[in-house]
Amino acid sequence: MKEIGPELELRLANGVNIIIAHARQLSLTSEQLSRVVTIKRRLDSLNTPLMRELDSLERANREHDRVALPRSRGDLPPPPNPRMERTLDVLRTNMHSAEEDAYEVLSGAQLQQALQLVKEARVIGDW
After folding, report:
1. Closest by Cα among 57, 123, 43, 39 to 90
2. Alpha helix ranges (H) inside 28-73
3. Contact of 95 with 122, CB cutoff 8 Å
4. What is the pTM of this model?
């Protein structure tokens, strides 16, 4: 199974994007869609610099791994990078807050359907 990086993992599971992509299926009104798009823009503006930082950290880790001494198959994986972990935590917090804001825009039936779509996307990695 191919490993995906943390940045892609966050994008795949972004509930706000899933709501927007399924706006028609969720029967969002134009006002609801506009509010969710505003939430998405706010999330993107918060996360863009963090995603760039994460990209840089991943590149630096790959470079370090490439020049590090070879490890045998029985070696443990390298320890997590604290800066990368903190960045991921902030990204996840931002995404969670934005999803909560987007869920508040939806009606009861829309919310249930959106939660199911997000759950399916996270389970099957369709996003």
Report:
1. 43
2. 30-67
3. no
4. 0.75
